[in-house]
Amino acid sequence: MTDQPEHPDYDGPSKSQLKRDSHLLQKMGQELVDMPEGMLQKFDLPENLQEAVHEARRLKSREAKRRHLQYIGKLMRISDTDVIQETLDMMDHQSQTYRQHFKELEDWRDRLINEGSDGIHAFIKAHPAADRQQLRNLQRQANREIELSKAPTASRKLFVYIRSLSE
Length: 167
Prior knowledge:
The protein is mostly helical. It has helices at residues 15-34, 37-40, 47-58, 62-77, 81-91, 96-115, 117-126, 132-147, 153-165. The chain contains nine helices and no strands. It is elongated. The two termini are 43 Å apart.
């Protein structure tokens, strides 16, 4: 098989498409600039892109900021933006990625409560940083609350702990 495209007239994306792609990358860069520092730390950004984001935050002039966002867009064209977009999606409560991640966390919580030691073993296998003792204590408390028909406080704590490990 040859590397020739099916349509020999195709020269690549149009100038308009390249411009739209560039604007999308600038918009993604704007989201990084506007987000709180704590959330920005969750991104594994290349050093030059991270420095550019911090520089853009420092700028006060509207025009200078606009030009710097174009520079950030240029840096993003040569970076792996798939990982950045996936992390942004996980932070966006409306996105499919976020809902899917949330569902996985709920499934883990339910599995830990219902399966006991087997569920804990499976979770630790998937998340080696987990504290087995803390998982056991929260699992026992959650089961006790279910038996006594109490509010699911331990179940919520278990969910928060699971979420902290998967971020």
